Every structure is written in structure tokens, then in C-alpha cells.
From TrEMBL:
<dbReference type="InterPro" id="IPR036388">
    <property type="entry name" value="WH-like_DNA-bd_sf"/>
</dbReference>
<dbReference type="GO" id="GO:0003677">
    <property type="term" value="F:DNA binding"/>
</dbReference>
<keyword id="KW-0805">Transcription regulation</keyword>
<dbReference type="GO" id="GO:0006355">
    <property type="term" value="P:regulation of DNA-templated transcription"/>
</dbReference>
<dbReference type="InterPro" id="IPR000792">
    <property type="entry name" value="Tscrpt_reg_LuxR_C"/>
</dbReference>
<keyword id="KW-0238">DNA-binding</keyword>
<dbReference type="Pfam" id="PF00196">
    <property type="entry name" value="GerE"/>
</dbReference>
<protein>
    <submittedName>
        <fullName>DNA-binding response regulator</fullName>
    </submittedName>
</protein>
<feature type="domain" description="HTH luxR-type">
    <location>
        <begin position="122"/>
        <end position="187"/>
    </location>
</feature>
<keyword id="KW-0804">Transcription</keyword>
<dbReference type="InterPro" id="IPR016032">
    <property type="entry name" value="Sig_transdc_resp-reg_C-effctor"/>
</dbReference>
């Protein structure tokens, strides 16, 4: 069980290897250790494919990334900590969900109860990034903040923010984690 004086171990059990790699990159950037299997993990991160197996997860601290259905079913099944997040949750929301679930808390973002995200993923052949956008995406994949990325690139923080927003638009995402995952899927960046 997670102790507040240490970081929880996390097992990412998403069906998409690309999505899992993006989530693992975000967790690693936050300093959260990854577990080799569910038994060694303080928190398990799952997607909609796990919905049929929900009763088997009853004793596990859980972060569910996916449909709004999780928010409806988790309260009736889990007694410990859990988080229901949308697939485009920000890095900060994902880390907060993991830490909250490990501490026995419930994290439910309002977006999990409302309409699906507005942006649609852009088809792979239609994504063209500028050299600077490639640089910014690579730094996002490393988990760097806008301030640190600006320092590394020798530009202002507002310039990095501009490029991050351009990446979100071009990749059809709404978060840093989404940009990294989509970038990996398109072969634009590797982690």
C-alpha cells in the first residue's frame, strides 16, 4: 500500500502500446516508478478494455482513462482510491489522479461527465511540423516544462507556449500527454 512519504509504483495496462508509452513517459517525467506487473503496483492505469474485468480490480487503486462510463460504474465497485479521467487528461491531471488514487482519494474531472473532447485526431499523412515544432515536441516527450524548454531552445517561454498550442492544433489533441502519444503514433518523436 502507498505510504504518503514515498511515491507510489504504477503499472500502465493500456491496450494501445503507443498510448501506454506516452503515459509512461509522463509518469517517468514526474518521477513515479513503474511496476513490472499488477501485483507490485500501488496504482493500476487502465482503459475501456478493462470494463468487463472491473470486479477483479475491486481491491486495486485505479486510474481509468477512457469513456464517461467509468465515472458511473467505479463508485459502485471500488472501495479504495480511484480516478476517472478522459483520454486527453493533461500530464498534471494524470499525475494528480495517480497520487490521489494511491492515497485512497477519488479524482473525477468534470470533463469525464460532459461531452467528449472537441478535437479529433488528425490523420497521419496530414501532419506537417516545422523544425521548431519538432524540437518542442521532443522536449515535451522528455517531460520538460515550458520554462525549461524555453531555456534549452534559447527562446522565450511565450514562444514555447505558442509552439505547444500549434502542436495541439496540428495533432488534434488537447494536452501534453496527448501530443506526446500522438507524436509517437505518427513517428514524429520517440521516447
Amino acid at each position: 500500500m502507498f505510504r504518503p512519504d514515498s511515491l507510489p509504483t504504477v503499472r500502465v495496462a493500456l491496450t494501445s502500446a503507443v498510448w501506454a508509452a506516452g503515459v509512461e513517459a509522463v509518469l517517468a517525467a514526474a518521477g513515479l516508478p513503474l511496476a513490472a506487473d499488477e501485483e507490485d503496483a500501488d496504482v493500476l492505469i487502465v482503459d475501456d478494455a478493462w470494463l468487463p474485468d472491473l470486479p477483479a480490480l475491486a481491491g486495486q487503486a485505479l486510474v481509468a482513462l477512457g469513456s464517461r462510463e467509468w465515472a458511473a460504474v467505479l463508485p459502485g465497485v471500488l472501495t479504495g482510491g480511484w480516478a476517472a479521467l478522459t483520454p486527453d487528461a493533461t500530464s498534471a491531471e494524470l499525475v494528480a489522479g495517480v497520487l490521489g488514487a494511491a492515497a485512497g482519494l477519488v479524482t473525477l474531472l468534470p470533463a469525464a461527465l460532459t461531452a467528449e473532447p472537441e478535437a479529433d485526431p488528425v490523420p497521419a499523412g496530414e501532419v506537417t511540423l516545422t523544425p521548431r515544432e519538432h524540437d518542442v515536441l521532443a522536449l515535451l516527450a522528455e517531460g520538460l516544462s515550458n520554462k525549461r524548454a524555453a531555456r534549452d531552445l534559447g527562446v522565450s517561454e511565450s514562444t514555447v507556449k505558442f509552439h505547444v498550442q500549434a502542436l495541439y492544433s496540428k495533432l488534434g489533441v488537447q494536452s501534453r500527454a496527448g501530443a506526446v502519444a500522438r507524436g509517437i503514433a505518427l513517428g514524429l518523436v520517440s521516447v
